[in-house]
Amino acid sequence: MGAIERYFGFDEHDTDLETELIAGLTTFLAMSYIIVVNPIILGEAITLEGYGPGEVRQMITVATILASVVAIFVMAFYANRPFGLAPGMGLNAFFAYSVVLGLGVPWQVALAAVFVEGIIFILLTAVGARRYIIELFPEPVKFAVGAGIGVYLLFLGLQEMQIVVADPETLVTMGNVATSAVAALSVAGLALMLVLHARGVRGAIVIGILATAVAGWVLTALGVVSPGTLTPQGSIVTSVQYDFTPLVAGFVDGLGMIAEDPLVFVLVVFTFFFVDFFDTAGTLIGVSQIGGFLDENGDLPEIEKPLMADAVGTTVGAMIGTSTVTTYIESSTGVEEGGRTGFTALVVGILFLLSLVIVPVITAIPQYATYIALVVVGIIMLQGVADIDWQDPAWAIAGGLTITVMPLTASISNGLAAGIMSYPVVKAAMGEGDDVSLGQWTLAVAFVLYFATYFAVQAGMISF
């Protein structure tokens, strides 16, 4: 234990083994849903001759877990940061629905595009280019990211809890707790978690997640609700297809298919790269803010190390059959529980590895139970608004747009884009254009060009 404490610097980071263990368990429980969800999404696009859909999803499950483990171990031992990584939500949907099913790109080629993106990330990280670009972010954007992610987490959590539901006229409205068993149990679980947190109970988030999940299963067993209402839909996975070599073979085939349509390939690589770059940057800065890792300029010291983790994870993940690996905003749950070192990440990685044999246990935890934690952490992350100078128009506009655009467009990168594009324009309008660096103007223009291309493709003005 002494060697572990010295290696990860427990004393330096004012933490201890018990705290790190609880933090790692908390983060894992909050993000373990990806083990089930990622195979479902990618399974819509990936087909293998001679294998049924269920077998393909099981292969992707193994690939998801292994890619996460590789990235998390790099985060733990190289970066020594308490962040969890896995194939990213949103990016996996883009892979399946937009690239493969939408554009008709073979899934093998899509994996090759993710692989190329990962290689580019490794090279850019190694020479310090990614760190340089992230440090160009305007100060108000850096300090607003945490609060923006907080609102985003709140919104995601309340939706999964069915407290916020869709409405045809107002887009969203209040869910009916009286008629929704999920909403009623989620509110009870949230109340428990908030009370425990307010009283300073260690492991409050883990206790809340597990208590809510157990309550859902007990109510189902007693016949209070029908099966599938408070428990995961479908049958629980009882066995896993561990042989994922057909996915590896597909990736190899994809490398040889790039030349068939290089223009589309470049477009796919660019989109994966652009979205993942800024999603990861926003997550790292936002989660680091609540952990007290940022310096006085809002920068994360040695940020290139955690950036290397997602780059390596993405590269390896593509080779074994999954989409882009990224840092998870759910890492904030573990940081809130006190996780401060790479040992927290190591615990997350070990639990992911163990999940290879306990997939049925992971799939037994309802998603709404884990999303309750996001609401609690989201509330806590709102404290970031206090770091913004609301009297300065440039800070208020750039920071305000960063915070609001994230949840309203369900995208961290879009929130960053809004702040980055608005900041130099407002500064110039205030007569303080000299305070904006050439790099910040370049970054803003890059976003304008990206969105112009994106919207043109969406409108059918550009086709491939």
Can you summarize this structure?
The protein has 20 helices and four strands.
Main attributes of the structure:
two-stranded antiparallel sheet, 464 residues, 4 strands, mainly alpha, 3% strand, globular
Layout of SSEs?
Elements: H1 2-8, H2 17-31, H3 34-42, H4 53-79, E1 85-87, H5 91-100, H6 107-126, H7 129-135, H8 139-160, E2 164-167, E3 171-174, H9 181-198, H10 204-221, H11 245-257, H12 262-291, H13 304-320, E4 325-327, H14 331-336, H15 342-354, H16 359-363, H17 367-381, H18 393-409, H19 412-429, H20 438-458
Antiparallel strand pairs: 1-4, 2-3
What does this structure look like?
The mean pLDDT is 90. By secondary structure, the chain is mainly α. The protein has one domain (2-458). The chain has helices spanning 2-8, 17-31, 34-42, 53-79, 91-100, 107-126, 129-135, 139-160, 181-198, 204-221, 245-257, 262-291, 304-320, 331-336, 342-354, 359-363, 367-381, 393-409, 412-429, 438-458, and strands at residues 85-87, 164-167, 171-174, 325-327. A hairpin with a 3-residue loop joins strand 2 (164-167) and strand 3.
Oligomer type = single chain
Instruction: Name the structural class.
Output: mainly alpha
Q: How much is the average pLDDT?
A: 90
Task: Work out the helicity level.
Answer: 55-70%
Using the alpha-carbon principal axes, give the shape: globular
